[in-house]
Design a protein that fits this description.
This protein is of the alpha+beta class. It contains 3 helices and 2 strands.
């Protein structure tokens, strides 16, 4: 597979280039950009923090957990 000059310049400048090769969608980008995304920015968790909090609350409710109040000493 060869990139056009325009595509290569886009990759060189830090942009990604989307291609389809034999029915497979591909993204081409510089290795340093990929490493930065993978190591520092990219979160492959399908849930946001808010969604995870809601799921945890739903689980606690479904298990009948009343929260930490039941474990605290009354004053």
């Amino acid at each position: 597979m060869e990139l056009t000059d325009k595509q290569f310049e886009a990759v060189r400048s830090g942009e990604c280039v989307r291609l389809t090769e034999e029915g497979t969608d591909l993204v081409i980008l510089r290795a340093d950009v990929f490493d930065r995304l993978r190591n520092n920015i990219y979160d492959d968790n399908p849930w946001t923090d808010e969604e995870m909090d809601l799921l945890a609350a739903e689980d606690a409710d479904s298990l009948g957990w009343e929260g930490m109040e039941a474990y605290q000493d009354p004053d």
